Amino acid sequence: MDTGLAIRERLDSIAVKGKQKKQIKCDTDSIAGCVSQRACVYCGARVVLNPVTDAIHLVHGPIGCASYTWDIRGSLSSGSELYRNSFSTDLQEEDVIFGGEKKLARAIDDLVGKYKPRLVFVYATCIVGVIGDDLEAVCKAAAQKHNIEVIPVESSGFIGNKAAGYRAACDALFRLINSGETEKKKNDPKINYLGDFNLAAEAWIIKNYLYEMGIEVNVTFTGDSDYMALKKAPEASLNIVQCAGSMHYLARKMKDRFGIPFMNVSFLGIEDTSDSLRKIAAFFNNDEITRRAEALIDKEIRRIEPLIRGYRKKLQGKKAAVYVGGGFKAISLIKQFKELGIDVVMVGTQTGRREEYEVIHDLVNEGTVVLDDANPSELERFMLEKGAHLLVGGVKERPLAYKLGLAFIDHNHDRKHPLSGFVGAVNFAEEVYSTVCSPVWRFIG
Amino acid sequence: MKKETPNFRNVTENPCHMCMPMGGIIPFKGIEQSMVILHGSQGCATYMRRHIAEHFNEPIDVGSSSLNEKGTVYGGEQNLKTGLDNIMKVYRPKLVGVLTTCLAETIGEDIERITSDYLRDRGLEGFPVVTVPTPGYGDSHFEGYWFTLTRIVTKLTQRAKRHSRVNVIVPNISPADIREIKRLLELMGVEYILFPDFSETLDRPFEKPYQKIPAGGTRTADIKVMAGSAATIQFGMTVEDSMSPGRFLQTEYDVPLYNLPIPMGVENTDLFFACLKEITGKEMPASLRLERGRLLDAMVDSHKYNFHGRSVIFGEPELVFAVTKTCSENGIFPVVVATGSRNSKLPRLLKGFLHELEIETRILTSSDFTQIRKNSREMGANIAIGSSEGRYLTEKEGIPLVRLGFPIHDRVGGQRLLSVGYTGTTMFLDRITNTLLENKLTNYRSSMYQKYYKNYHAAVPTH
Ligand code: SF4
């Protein structure tokens, strides 16, 4: 029997691009026992909020959740380092029976006394919802007592998937920015950058580009952001959204509440980076900005093109498989591989949305396998069947690729080198080259 | 003198331990053709897979019953059964472990009942399913590991005819360490049942075609007859009786139990061989004597450098115990010894030998890294030994870290670190000495300058 697809319920989540277009099933709960690569609501919330540098990130729950998320991401800070700690109420059996509210209140007191933060995020984990702790009330009381902001994050693990965690994080962020006074000077070239977590300086790279164009980044959500910067979010005249999966929801809320328009952008790859910079310039409808944008793009492309061409020559005809968190990233990667002369033969995501899968379908070649919420056996089967030479994925996928004798690219939150912007495009090409063309594969055969 | 610092706090800052199910996954990975499924929400399984995969650099497949809101409110029975179905279909395991998580425990799921119903409904009576209640809030991953071993033995072992093999029960040491213990047993000519044996499954060779469940692991047929073994050697000095598989085999089936420290360091390793001799009557072969001699020689070579070592040792109680012993044999004086587990045996065992050293050692249980850091600073520690989480001590306090234990996720090769037996101890000691030397040699020019030149006129150096 074909073990790779032994699970019938999974069939609707897998499509092969061909004559008739198939709507792929997505945005549903994982099927039990499928060994999904997905994380949980808490994870989604933590990913989005953790880069807020001067906040106390307090996990209300048992120890594991805090342990597994202690300083594992590559987000950089230009100021406070408080976010690199992992605080937990470390709930014990008694707390589960009698409730953890008192312990939580005391934990906040202790942390506020010790670190004097202006902002505390309190994350709910699986059991907090079940034991019925009133997070809202504890946070409110603590906020009044200490005269700071203490914001609950509704991230109980079972209330959905990672996307629900993104929403929980956005709700928490919105609470923060909606509580201040807003004053905005119309059409100032001042923007918020949503959905960049400043992994390995990525937000800084983009900030520099925009600065060169005469545009000021007001605040990044949430890479290298802090309490003061976030509070000023309503002052922007435009929101650009990179990671749409996590931040589209916040952008909508800010549009409704503050009238800030938003647009989706992507800074992965030369094509997307150039397009995005042009789109941003066009929004301001200002000749100087447009001129500067073109000059920047021109200069950068001139600089990196010969490098990319060199790699392209060496990578001709290779085939890639992609399995990443969000649809936005998958789309950018397909384009980026095209720039390198590489065909994507398999592409999947953990939390892609319908619209994103449609774009993916249009971008890929006939025969490409598209799949939502895949598991190791499916990845194994399709990578081998399609003859992929490399996989792009996260930490869990890396050993699988290596065991199959495939090259591998880390495209997750732990990375220590930037993949954004023109700089990132070169890094990406170099990384692909370094793994696909490594001499080790000679022995693997 | 030693002092035990009690630790009451409302908040854990930078944890030094993980949750119970994490520890429970690893033993199942050391049983031939077995699969694990966690009953709870999807995230727990994914986080743990990520952590374990990064340490061993191996694919770690763990199922989840992916409990959602409905399952949480109305019970997750259906989810768990579907999960079992799918695991069986795709992996075709010979044994399945079912662990709970916080969520399943809090809503009161009876996994024993659910799984036996499942087996009956599917006509699979007799298929080995081992259930282990591992609430994340129950205890640390250390207890999760040992409790799972005990559950496996309780479930699988049956009264058996006496035979001459020796049960060898190992804690969460590296695959390389397990292979070394097997080599030593073979050199001694001892027949054994090593449990759990993840030496091949979590450090598998590259080969094609890829196997979803790697070859290797303790055979279930062997686990079955552990009740008939000549004796049990268990490296579990710090393990509570209620979680001790060796103790269970002793009380239930009269298998003599030798509870020993992990064979690291001279005395602990000697103890291991003495014990093997007592059980089997066999003498240590000449080749092992040479290995022991080489260890002693290495210790002499490095003793003066080590004498400046003031170590902070942290991690799982069993490993911490063995490492502390090894350090104290070598002048790398343990000044802070810490575990995140609540373990009560560890402090008592440490006091048993630490009093011989004329230094103060702080022993911390239920500890976290904020506390470990503070104590390390106060005690002037200059070398740290433990998992990757200790990188924080390097970053914040400039204390270099010798990586050992679980998890090691910021360096490669955690699974290949060899530290047991005479040869492993030699390699481990060299890693420590060289780290001390590297630190000294990188800093001595500037530190001498600071101390004796720059302030020359300002003050007479005090030492
Ligand atoms: S502490 Fe509980 S909820 Fe958190 S990862 Fe561990 S089992 Fe899951």
From TrEMBL, chain A:
GO-annotated biological processes = protein-containing complex assembly
**Membership in a protein family:** Belongs to the NifD/NifK/NifE/NifN family.
Q: Which residues form the Nitrogenase/oxidoreductase component domain?
A: 40-436
Q: What does this protein do?
A: This protein may play a role in the biosynthesis of the prosthetic group of nitrogenase (FeMo cofactor).
Q: Which domain of life is it from?
A: Bacteria
Record-given protein name = Nitrogenase iron-molybdenum cofactor biosynthesis protein NifE
Any single GO molecular-function term of the entry would be: nitrogenase activity
Coiled-coil segments on the chain, per record: none
Q: Any idea which UniProt keywords this protein has?
A: Nitrogen fixation
Please state the pathway this protein functions in, per its UniProt record. Answer: Cofactor biosynthesis; Fe-Mo cofactor biosynthesis
In terms of InterPro entries, this protein maps to: Nase/OxRdtase_comp1, Nase_comp1_CS, NifE, NifE-like
- Pfam families found in the cross-reference section: Oxidored_nitro
> By its UniProt entry, which NCBIfam families does this protein fall under?
nifE (TIGR01283)
TrEMBL record, chain B:
Family assignment from sequence similarity: Belongs to the NifD/NifK/NifE/NifN family.
Read off the InterPro entries from this record: ChlB/BchB/BchZ, Nase/OxRdtase_comp1, Nase_comp1_CS
Organism, scientific name? Thermincola ferriacetica
Question: Under what name is this protein listed?
Answer: Nitrogenase
- The transmembrane segments are none
Is Iron there in the keyword field?
no
Any one GO MF annotation of this record:
nitrogenase activity
Q: What's one Pfam family the UniProt record gives for this protein?
A: Oxidored_nitro
Q: Which PANTHER family match?
A: LIGHT-INDEPENDENT PROTOCHLOROPHYLLIDE REDUCTASE SUBUNIT B
Source taxon at top rank = Bacteria
Residue ranges constituting the Nitrogenase/oxidoreductase component domain according to the UniProt record:
19-436
Q: Any keyword Metal-binding?
A: no
